[in-house]
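For reproducibility, we list the full input for the pantoate complex.
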Amino acid sequence: VKIFDQPGMMREQLDHLRAESKTIGFVPTMGGLHEGHLSLVRQAKSVADAVVVSIFINPLQFGANEDLDAYPRKLEDDLQQLEQLDTDMVFTPTPDTMYPLGLEAQTKVLVPDLTTVLCGASRPGHFDGVSTVVCKLFNIVGPNTAVFGQKDLQQLLIIKRLVADLALPVTVIGHPTTREADGLAMSSRNTYLNEDQRAIAPTLYQSLSEAVEAIKNGSRDYPALEKGALTTLEKAGFAPDYIEIRRSTDLIRATEADEDIAIFGAARLGTTRLIDNIVVSTG
Ligand code: PAF
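The corresponding predicted structure, in tokenized form, follows.
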């Protein structure tokens, strides 16, 4: 695996591949890699000649009181895992190279509407940081295809909108969530959980799954299903942020008439904020 930390060098290497008509697959990450990330890399490998993974803990997407400093940093381990998958290139820029004039002075890419609900409501500015860094990474790497996890379904929809609105020449693929045996969605933040919290954590997925079962059995009382899941989470010891059933295409609140919907959940266990979602078709 070849490692680059300078955008110019990264782009130059990829220009060589492009000159040979090779296609480039891209998986942007913040490191702390787990099996979920590795499945994105495998997917990228299956659709492109060469795969680039970026590892960049993007300060622009963290709020003032969030976990930027605590976010898992384990570059050696990440590189080893990528090496084992035969990843072609890894891009590891620093905040200074990505934001040489500082975060405040950085030009930003703002996707409307989709960014203000769900996690966007509780983490103001978060998705502006995500769309800005992803746009910038796309411009450096120039991938034909980029793969994102469906665990962050809101992020995936925002990136698809960004790509469509700015006519970026990238195909964005969503990859299904990788789960632990007990259903917990894999996340770098799971490493924050202590033993007791880890035992409770799968309740988030269970509460969403119960609502989905009810929907599949014909229930369309979405407020009641949301309330039921919130109660389950509170009883288990979570401090829920939201449980909401929305359209899986544009994140508008779901009504009985909508067929493509998803249930989204975010909840805290101690200081750790976990998110998950399940997509359902009622058609
Ligand atoms: O999902 C993530 O890890 C990040 O939000 C991303 C897409 C790498 C942007 O920093």
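Residues 28-30, 58, 61, 130, 133-134, 152, 155 surround pantoate (CB under 6 Å). The radius of gyration is 19 Å. Both points were considered when choosing residues for closer inspection.
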